[in-house]
Amino acid sequence: MTFPEILDRVGSMGPFQYLHVTLLALPILGMANHNLLQIFTATTPAHHCRPPPNTSAGPWVLPMGPNGEPEKCLRFVHLPNTSLPNDTQGATEPCLDGWVYNTTRDTIVTEWNLVCSSGKLKEMAQSIFMAGILIGGLVLGELSDRFGRKPILTCSYLLLAASGSGTAFSPTLSFYIVFRFLTGFSISGIVLSTVILNVEWVPTWMRAISSTAFGYCYTTGQFILSGLAYAIPQWRWLQLTVSVPYFIFSLLSWWIPESIRWMVLNGRFSKALKTLQHVAAFNGKKEEGEKLSLEELKFNLQKDISLAKIKYGTTDLFRIPILRHMTLCLSLAWFSTGFAYYSLAMGVEEFGVNLYILQIIFGGVDIPAKFITILSISYLGRHITQAIVLLLAGGAILALIFVPSDMQILRTALAVFGKGCLSGSFSCLFLYTSELYPTVVRQTGMGINNLWARVGSMLAPLVKITGEVKPFIPNVIYGTMALLGGSAAFFLPETLNRPLPETIEDLQNWRHQGKKRKQEPEAEKASQRIPLKPCGPQ
């Protein structure tokens, strides 16, 4: 008896699974609040130099820049007891007395004057946040395989609540950056553990639906963020509002059970049996649960138990040929998705619309995108869907090269279409990756591949600099990488309607079965060939 069959006995899709998925999905509503928070807490409003304190009352004339607009980072030199310049001539100097901001919102930019020469510090803060997600994916993936999915999930909730709240009370930018790094670090633990606990507790046919439901929770979170940001103009109160709920989520996580597969593979049979019996009782199958015994559980999963004694780590993902092939292809798909996704996210100013409306547009495109993605992965398959969405996204980005900058509607439509495809790619990748890796290295594999997505998101801003050489170069790089990621997906095996692999041997069996299915039609065709008789005398 396999684990899916044991799960069927205690109820593979009953009240327990619905509660389980709900408890995992609720915190996802707040993920967008932290990933995209700096869109609102770090907006750069219109600004200009503050006049010297000893100037007389009257209109303050600003130098004009080469584009015909007032300078934001320079002012005329003003000597005491002299009149202010009344034209665009005269010596200039930096804003020695700070800036005047044309806004009613309180942001980290206005509080710490992150403009002009200090403007790069805002981008650095976001990059360090992404670095936290990157390092968290690497570290917490390993820890989750060693200590379990549930402890890492609970600790990540607590760390996010504490670091997010600490960010709201940061006295300086340095403290802000440190807390943002820890926030990103904790987000990786939440995302990775949520994905694993989802796929290991729901039946095969439900995986795509539940994974897409998580994606819709993230989309809904984008709408919530726009509303909260509009209602709370002070960045500290907004930061605190989106962080405190995770203290509650950490308490709710005690009702989330540990992965049965992980407990069995780590020799915790008694706890695994009690958990299965609890699930059976919750699903109204108490008698079936009581029929399960420790000996039966050990006997049916003996193969998995013996193979679990061999410990696998990050190096095994590249040492074992079948894992190396999968890891290289998936890494390219993850990297290109994160790389291209954040290239579009950083170009939102090109829309030329209200910031809150813009966020709703970018969040709204996820609704049809994820719906189409779930239909595709459920009927066409995982690797076909993954390839198509990345190829379409790459095509949309490359098409931007040929659209003039004054055709804003068409450029916006292409960007929104590309962003929708990349959102679908993320949804597919989380499910597909968790189905490809066997249980013994699943969390580590998820962590490594998620790391590549974060590397892509960190490199995307740097590629923008190449636009100073030729404006079309960044889109060429972004689009080409998306096309390469989509092509790599064609070399991955299909997982549609397949049980989750438990061991490396299960993956090898997949490959042998795939080769056998390909060889059978060829052998059948060969047997049906009728040899032609030679012409001429015998």
UniProtKB/TrEMBL annotation:
InterPro entries: MFS_dom, MFS_sugar_transport-like, MFS_trans_sf, Orgcat_transp/SVOP, Sugar_transporter_CS
Keywords, sorted A to Z: Ion transport, Membrane, Transmembrane, Transmembrane helix, Transport
Gene Ontology molecular function terms on file: organic anion transmembrane transporter activity; organic cation transmembrane transporter activity; prostaglandin transmembrane transporter activity; solute:inorganic anion antiporter activity; xenobiotic transmembrane transporter activity
Record localization: Endomembrane system
Region of interest: Disordered: 510-538
Transmembrane feature ranges: 152-169, 175-201, 213-232, 238-256, 326-344, 356-377, 384-403
Claim: Oxidoreductase is one of the keywords in the record: no
Lineage: superkingdom: Eukaryota
GO BP terms in the entry: monoatomic ion transport
GO cellular component, one term: apical plasma membrane
Gene3D superfamilies on file: MFS general substrate transporter like domains
Membrane association type: Multi-pass membrane protein
Ranges where the Major facilitator superfamily (MFS) profile domain occurs: 83-497
UniProt similarity note: Belongs to the major facilitator (TC 2.A.1) superfamily. Organic cation transporter (TC 2.A.1.19) family.
Name of the featured protein: Solute carrier family 22 member 8
Species in which this protein is naturally found: Marmota marmota marmota (Alpine marmot)
Gene: SLC22A8
